[in-house]
Amino acid sequence: xxxxxxxxxxxxxxxxxxxxxxxxxxxxxxxxxxxxxxxxxxxxxxxxxxxxxxxxxxxxxxxxxxxxxxxxxxxxxxxxxxxxxxxxxxxxxxxxxxxxxxxxxxxxxxxxxxxxxxxxxxxxxxxxxxxxxxxxxxxxxxxxxxxxxxxxxxxxxxxxxxxxxxxxxxxxxxxxxxxxxxxxxxxxxxxxxxxxxxxxxxxxxxxxxxxxxxxxxxxxxxxxxxxxxxxxxxxxxxxxxxxxxxxxxxxxxxxxxxxxxxxxxxxxxxxxxxxxxxxxxxxxxxxxxxxxxxxxxxxxxxxxxxxxxxxxxxxxxxxxxxxxxxxxxxxxxxxxxxxxxxxxxxxxxxxxxxxxxxxxxxxxxxxxxxxxxxxxxxxxxxxxxxxxxxxxxxxxxxxxxxxxxxxxxxxxxxxxxxxxxxxxxxxxxxxxxxxxxxxxxxxxxxxxxxxxxxxxxxxxxxxxxxxxxxxxxxxxxxxxxxxxxxxxxxxxxxxxxxxxxxxxxxxxxxxxxxxxxxxxxxxxxxxxxxxxxxxxxxxxxxxxxxxxxxxxxxxxxxxxxxxxxxxxxxxxxxxxxxxxxxxxxxxxxxxxxxxxxxxxxxxxxxxxxxxxxxxxxxxxxxxxxxxxxxxxxxxxxxxxxxxxxxxxx
Length: 649
Fold this sequence. Notes:
six-stranded mixed beta sheet, 12% helix, 50 strands, Leucine-rich repeat, LRR (right-handed beta-alpha superhelix)
């Protein structure tokens, strides 16, 4: 009998739990239904608000028309289009001398109403300033003009409503009240195909249209003066852009990776084409440079592989080495006959300075024709990037050469470097290229698994092991003091890097994107320590760099008060980061953290660097436990601008 009773109780308990579960599910369904019936898009409350908004706005329109009718009765010279009014002004063409007023004198029911503080009268028509989509929709039903933009001191700021007035064809005209398009204002948005920027806009600021996925046509009217850094970066569907003559500056990366851009004409007031301005515009076939142009900066036309002809105008006096790197089809360069600074030698396919001491560019036809490249005698500096020409396995350095760029200029296939015995600036030993006294390693081109460096070397230059991809172990000599950027970035087989006690400078990108192997630092090094495969300063108050590939969440050690420059650069798989409550400063730390979508910044933080989140392409939320504006520089390089910054106090 006891057993039966126990079984019955168990069954009753099971039925009770089942009933409770069903009840909860029913309540959830009823809750969802109730929400949709009340607060949903077609809910009772939503419809009630819409009706209220329509009634109020219709009342405002009626009062405006009555006011205009009264003024016309008073004076038949009254012009309705002359009426302009806001919260501290009233103007119309027949206004008696000395009369003042406000919008409340025109629309008396506005005061204290839903739209108080949001209405203006411009040219005799109502204008609603709102970012509320329901308000915008109701105003549009009554043909009331709408300004959905957040405009402060003439700057159109980043906001979620910036595409509210885009038409069905994806076209949008910036209002003439705007003097500057703010940082990230239209960045990373979809649907916008044509943007018309009137001449009243003087400045298009940093990241303004960056990564705008559908943008095809950019119409910039006469009057616009500046296109800011990365303003149209990675707008990959743009085909043509007409730049106005009023333009005076096109800043760095402005059209970076606009891969469908086919032609560009540089206006007459532009004197400098900034660095990486047309980087990787690989469909660009026609470039017209202005006669007033004086300077073409580093990487300005990098990898414009469709460009085959170019005219260099008379006044160009500075072309930075690398301006035309990897322009593999550029084979015909015409330099103005009166240009005093440069000339193009068709035989060698080289653009050089007049003194023939510096090569700016070499035709791909020349570089691809042999496995050996001899730097011409007479050249003093060589900094041309020829890294894409994997056929070149030998470089010959002439007696005249005094300086050269980094090993990053050359392909990893490079096997041999020959230095003229009379050269006073370079030397080789054990398949390594050094400066003459062997205090700087320029390039290790050994294909062995180990290499012995000169015991005099103090500095490892950028990319210096790029041509030594098979290295597995490296014991740096005790003489080494400085390790520069990307020294071991190509060494994917590394197992151990042992760093000595004298090293006092390590670039955070010395192993950029290469997370293989273990880094150890001498215990008696007074500057650095490694713990948990993370490089810190000696007392662990600053993260220098993370030496492994983060997957998922990273928790910053609670001893850290500063996150250093580029500490998390290129951590593509990091999805979350937890910052300690005693953190004081964040440098330019999170570039190219592509999977980081949100970050919480504690109240202890006092400083964030201006480029902290640049190129963190999917960052959607920055929460800061501070009062608005208490840390300068917002949005700190975030592509989407201030619309993703949330001040929590």
